Amino acid sequence: MIMRMSRLFVRTLREDPADAEVPSHRLLVRAGYIRRAAPGIYTWLPLGLKVLRKIEDIIREEMDAIGAQELSFPALLPREPYEATNRWTEYGDGIFRLQDRKGADYLLGPTHEEMFTLVVKDLYSSYKDLPLSIYQIQTKYRDEARPRAGLLRGREFIMKDSYSFDVDDAGLDVSYNKHRDAYIRIFDRLGFEYAIVEAMSGAMGGSKSEEFLAKASVGEDTYVRCSLCDYAANVEAVHVPPIAPVPYDDVPAAHAEQTPDTPTIETLVDHLNERFARDDRPWTAADTLKNVLFTVRHPDGTTEALAVGLPGDREVDDKRLEAHLGEGVVFAPFGDEDFAAQPTLAKGYIGPGALGEKKPAGVRYLVDPRVVEGTRWVTGADVAGSHVIDLVAGRDFSADGTIEVAEVRDGDPCPRGDGGVLETARGIEMGHIFQLGRKYAEALDLKVLDENGKLVTVTMGSYGIGPSRAVAAIAEGTHDELGLSWPREVAPADVHLVAAGKEEAIFAAAERIAHELDKKGVTVLYDDRAGKVSPGVKFKDAELIGVPTIVVVGKGLAEGTIEVKDRATGTREDVPADHLVDRVVRIVKA
Amino acid sequence: MIMRMSRLFVRTLREDPADAEVPSHRLLVRAGYIRRAAPGIYTWLPLGLKVLRKIEDIIREEMDAIGAQELSFPALLPREPYEATNRWTEYGDGIFRLQDRKGADYLLGPTHEEMFTLVVKDLYSSYKDLPLSIYQIQTKYRDEARPRAGLLRGREFIMKDSYSFDVDDAGLDVSYNKHRDAYIRIFDRLGFEYAIVEAMSGAMGGSKSEEFLAKASVGEDTYVRCSLCDYAANVEAVHVPPIAPVPYDDVPAAHAEQTPDTPTIETLVDHLNERFARDDRPWTAADTLKNVLFTVRHPDGTTEALAVGLPGDREVDDKRLEAHLGEGVVFAPFGDEDFAAQPTLAKGYIGPGALGEKKPAGVRYLVDPRVVEGTRWVTGADVAGSHVIDLVAGRDFSADGTIEVAEVRDGDPCPRGDGGVLETARGIEMGHIFQLGRKYAEALDLKVLDENGKLVTVTMGSYGIGPSRAVAAIAEGTHDELGLSWPREVAPADVHLVAAGKEEAIFAAAERIAHELDKKGVTVLYDDRAGKVSPGVKFKDAELIGVPTIVVVGKGLAEGTIEVKDRATGTREDVPADHLVDRVVRIVKA
């Protein structure tokens, strides 16, 4: 195929668009790949659509290769199935809702678990029908509070979502691993750097959960990797390595002390070192136990007070807390009114009394896993200006359970306990595979007859990739200061051919090369613009558009050479005109 | 590719679905191509999606072949552009509207004229950029009052819509004809019978307008064709052939007569023949002039009374009236309150006085083109029980204009005046091409600089095809009593291979044939189901699913023959096993 710049529906821009926050967004607009139609909603211009389609085709090929079958659900969905799983309520403001002319409720599908589950229930009834993997590549909608970063977080976007259906957990493991392998092939082909990280699975009820993250400084996701082993995890999913109980036979009894004017950890530590100095080592924030209170509202409308106890040197990580509380749960730190409503909780001095024996009804107390039996803490004494010292977990207080929501820091030990330490990095969530389990099958009553004629609930896996986000993530990972620079498999063309000059001979040679390359199956974006468009403008456009191989028919032609440039590395070579087509074909098919 | 029935996500049904009104809908559900998700909203199962994609690919190829460039707009669109063209209001209940979390108005795009116009305005600025044709294949939404007939009239459906942009009318003609030729190639390839008919263009402001209709008895569109020439037109677009004025010098003066109890045309004609018998011929309904009143509400909220005068032997055709009044205009016949509000209009006896000199303000009077100057009529005398005879158009009364909304009947003369008569037929609107002109370019200010540096408004053409409707229309046109029967180019597979029997040898032979055909590039739907599935069930499924060539490996295998059956004609041939693959390849590639 030959695309001619003189006719291609594109207009490159020299200036960055005002609303573009990240390089991929700036460059995709400037190079004429996309245009914004509304906040978080984009039009795909011809070049952008070509890249998107190539990504979709790669995904489709790899899905088909593992025997997954493509179907397509509507985007406009009735309320009822989402009511059955409670997600109509859980999604809150996060989805687009509408009514038809008869007043019936609809939503624009943000994900299609319900539809996948119901279609299998409709068609299948026996264990013999399983395993089954089905998928779609389809437009999805989320009413993001703050759509940002162009295609990276849109309100209308494309998703490939697949689901596996198995009769038992062993089958689910097989389906999960097939998808995992397919995802590795897909991400390898997409040509950008990625990490596979462990992700939260608790809230969704399944057991295994991994994310594929594109490494990118603009990414919204923080993940950690071990300095020694191959452990990597989304920050939400990081666990504290198991800690053994500590002997506490020789710890003196807990004793309350006056600690006036110590409402913060910092003032408390200073006070401890001044008035209660230890011989062996100074007090630090890590010796203190901080109790942080939240008001938590569940999707069913009920609220509770949640107290999180954690070492004083760490903050609660809101994203981790959000992930642990699960979808549709809203939380906020205790405010003055909340404290006023719980007079036994002494703000700044909350301690084991108020969270132990005297705990008010409706308060749940969960502690960080570092608070294991036998550990010694300084914490509030439940009255202003007083703290308890030598408070031993398990001896002097206990909690309702543990929660892993303390911030994760560079240098924290690897959960695998191999001596490595964690380092954080940022990424863009590009794919998510997880064992969904029986949550939706139970809610929507998807059962099949097993070998013994008994009805069993089907277990599901869920596997998603965002092709539209992938366009931006690849651009993010591969661009340079001159413009986009596509990996070959997703580039909108194989070769960007530039006729650089005004001479008839240059255009004639370029035209001939375009046709010869086309005949060999090479896709050519041919800059055939005549008249006022200077070679300089054409070179700039070629760098901006980012086709991986740039062929320049210019001054060298008189001496019988044509320049071939690698967009990514900038390497140039002068190729004899006679060998040009062969040389380019070899580069393209390499 | 080999698809195995044992693994294919499909379930055929022996019973018709309760909600299916037309054969295509019944069969597409029974054969496992689609499932209903909500009224007018469907899920595409794997077989259905394959047919849909093949149709889309044919359309894409032919669009690309005329140099049209593909892009893709969002389906979720902001209100503002539709406000600028007044369509936000005009669409009334016909579109889905919604608000985002910030309360901003959006719609689900029913068509994208505004978006196409604006993107060209954004990117282009000179006559040198034109002509341009751009298109998309995309999901569209209409909140139909009564979604019906499965995919034939859905609320979520797929459309290919393209638009051409030219600086002048001559350019538009060229673009229009290119699209027309491409449409002919597309419809020829889709493999069903179609008619190209003249369509209404007036309301949209353009000049040329044609529809591509699939011939189908279940079609919602009525069209006419001439018994002699190649004239064909949508009923909305049919014109009365020009009629010359009639001399009326010897017509006596109009005279009012008592005609008690003649509120209907039938009673009036009886009365005339009884009391005012003519020598030359009896009175017929065609001698009477019927004045029918409507209340018309325009999109801007204003209302008017419209009186339509037409020969008494014809009714007003609501669809023709709707088409003439234009999009967003709502009308209803005069009710008792309307008559009460206009006391000068004597219900059942409305005549030239009330519609002429004494016409109330706010009433518009339009007549059928058969009411030419000099024609003689019997009509109401504006008082109950009285009619005027020998009323001559142009002498005794005149109207505000003409309107072509009288019903079209079999036997009406061809508008080309060649002596042929019209016959009506029914069809499904599959494509519509029309010269849109400057309506949207003017509303959205799309101008380019012409050769002289002067700003000129661009003129547009609009060209649409519905691929999802095409799936149903093809099924409608090609099915038989046994099931679906796809034309080869859109079939979900080339060959339906049936292993008919229980013997190991049959399955081994079928398996080998499947692989050999696959190697030759033939797509095989292989019914490899073992166990309880009888040959009879497999044959029924093959007929129902409708792949054009059915290969049966069965009893004949022992004698070295395999049956090849043509699904459409039912022709069978026994082919020697050794020649089977070659024979099938020849059939498939024919």
Automatic annotation (TrEMBL), chains A, B:
MF-aspect GO terms: aminoacyl-tRNA deacylase activity; ATP binding; proline-tRNA ligase activity
For this record, an example GO cellular component is: cytosol
UniProt GO BP: prolyl-tRNA aminoacylation
Q: Quickly give the catalysed reaction.
A: tRNA(Pro) + L-proline + ATP = L-prolyl-tRNA(Pro) + AMP + diphosphate
Pfam families named among the record's database cross-references? HGTP_anticodon, tRNA-synt_2b, tRNA_edit
- Tell me which UniProt keywords the record has, alphabetically: Aminoacyl-tRNA synthetase, ATP-binding, Cytoplasm, Ligase, Nucleotide-binding, Protein biosynthesis
Q: Which PROSITE patterns match?
A: AA_TRNA_LIGASE_II (PS50862)
The record describes its quaternary structure and partners as: Homodimer.
* Family the UniProt entry places it in: Belongs to the class-II aminoacyl-tRNA synthetase family. ProS type 1 subfamily.
Extract the HAMAP family matched here: Pro_tRNA_synth_type1 (MF_01569)
Query: What is the annotated role of this protein in its UniProt record?
Result: Catalyzes the attachment of proline to tRNA(Pro) in a two-step reaction: proline is first activated by ATP to form Pro-AMP and then transferred to the acceptor end of tRNA(Pro). As ProRS can inadvertently accommodate and process non-cognate amino acids such as alanine and cysteine, to avoid such errors it has two additional distinct editing activities against alanine. One activity is designated as 'pretransfer' editing and involves the tRNA(Pro)-independent hydrolysis of activated Ala-AMP.
Question: What does the UniProt entry state concerning the protein's domains?
Answer: Consists of three domains: the N-terminal catalytic domain, the editing domain and the C-terminal anticodon-binding domain.
The protein's name? Proline--tRNA ligase
Q: Native species of this protein?
A: Nocardioides agri
